[in-house]
Amino acid sequence: MFSLVLALLCFHGVVVTCLNNEGYALLSFKNSIYEDPEGSLSNWNSSHDNPCSWNGIACKEQRVVSISIPNNKLRGFLPSALGSLFDLRHLNLRNNKLFGAFPVELLEVEGLQSLVLYGNSLSESLPNQIGKLKYLQTLDLSENFFNGSLPSSIVQCKRLRTLDLSQNNFTGSLPNGFGTGLVSLENLDLSFNKFNGSIPWDFGNLSSLQGTVDLSHNLFTGLIPGSLGDLPEKVYIDLTYNNLSGPIPQKGALMNRGPTAFFGNPGLCGPPLKNPCSLDTTGATSPSSHPLLQDNNSTGNLADKERGLRQGERTK
Ligand SMILES: *[C@@H]1O[C@H](CO)[C@@H](O)[C@H](O)[C@H]1NC(C)=O
Ligand SMILES: *[C@@H]1O[C@H](CO)[C@@H](O)[C@H](O)[C@H]1NC(C)=O
Ligand SMILES: *[C@@H]1O[C@H](CO)[C@@H](O)[C@H](O)[C@H]1NC(C)=O
Ligand SMILES: *[C@@H]1O[C@H](CO)[C@@H](O)[C@H](O)[C@H]1NC(C)=O
Ligand SMILES: *[C@@H]1O[C@H](CO)[C@@H](O)[C@H](O)[C@H]1NC(C)=O
Ligand SMILES: *[C@@H]1O[C@H](CO)[C@@H](O)[C@H](O)[C@H]1NC(C)=O
Ligand SMILES: *[C@@H]1O[C@H](CO)[C@@H](O)[C@H](O)[C@H]1NC(C)=O
Ligand SMILES: *[C@@H]1O[C@H](CO)[C@@H](O)[C@H](O)[C@H]1NC(C)=O
């Protein structure tokens, strides 16, 4: 109401300075925050003619290019008005208490380069047209309550370098073209979700990946595609706790890893695991039906032995 009156006053030229539209868009963000215990938004008020001096706001040529208010216990939701900040490049609201859905209007901010929302309580599905964000380089949504599948349009984000969706409730399979589409991807963490289906055959085309590629604690099924071995040699692929099966391709980035990258997939077989692939199958389905046999080496180290036993129990 106050804003409206002020806007009317401004319109009639009664007040000399007047907050611009971007300022009002940010004030609707402030209005969507129910709790701001640290007063992070206390200098966000309409007595300025633009928001460029406000806490957490950065401008370029008087246009808002960045909102950065991490770790401030802000409780509230993301309003659609954020979608009218057309020059926004960076939105960082990690580690707050934001809830509700990802506003589809944010996809109108086509120049968005980083979207860092990890450690909130955001929920529901990502909007299907997320691929409209052609300049997106960082999408970090980890530790929220997002569900539904990863929209297939994500493969249009050709500049995406960091994709962290870990610790959410995502389901469904990874979209077609995941490997061939995300040509710039360097960091990938999909752990602790409910992704299912098989690992895309073209995963190995993600040739810019580095560090740990974490697919652990999901529901991926089927064979490990041989193309995973084509990933850069230094990449460490964590496939633990899925439902993968069949032999582990003895190739490139998958070799010399030791068994730890593969635990928790009762159907996997062959080196570096101790349960050999049984000869009477194509190797695609079951590990040896006698997984305990290779664990009779009393001089072997205890940890290996226990793991072998656990694995044996699961495959019985
Ligand atoms: C608005 O901010 C200015 C300083 O930036 C402060 O002097 C003024 O009291 C504030 N007004 C309100 C209504 O908070
Ligand atoms: C995931 O969804 C299930 C219900 O389908 C719910 O019980 C669980 O709390 C959710 N977990 C997260 C992290 O959202
Ligand atoms: C996602 O969670 C919401 C509740 O936050 C629920 O209404 C909706 O059905 C869920 N969608 C899927 C695809 O699981
Ligand atoms: C993946 O899970 C969804 C439910 O979340 C199910 O509808 C779909 O059939 C599953 N797909 C595969 C390939 O298992
Ligand atoms: C994907 O990788 C395969 C095998 O390395 C290669 O033959 C193919 O050309 C690649 N495709 C694209 C689109 O890069
Ligand atoms: C694991 O995959 C097998 C088929 O390979 C399937 O029968 C089984 O239900 C799956 N288990 C889970 C927990 O998804
Ligand atoms: C012990 O392991 C060897 C192979 O290393 C195997 O041939 C043999 O059958 C095993 N013995 C028992 C009692 O499991
Ligand atoms: C038994 O384990 C030791 C140490 O792990 C290893 O050096 C040795 O080759 C193993 N022997 C057999 C028969 O597997």
UniProtKB/TrEMBL annotation:
The keyword Nucleotide-binding does not apply. Residues 303-316 have a biased composition (Basic and acidic residues). Residues 1-18 form the signal peptide. It comes from the Eukaryota. Residues 124-209 form the Disease resistance R13L4/SHOC-2-like LRR domain. The keyword Signal applies. Keywords: Leucine-rich repeat, Repeat, Signal. Residues 279-301 have a biased composition (Polar residues). Residues 19-59 form the Leucine-rich repeat-containing N-terminal plant-type domain. Residues 279-316 are annotated as: Disordered. This is Leucine-rich repeat-containing N-terminal plant-type domain-containing protein. It comes from Gossypium arboreum.
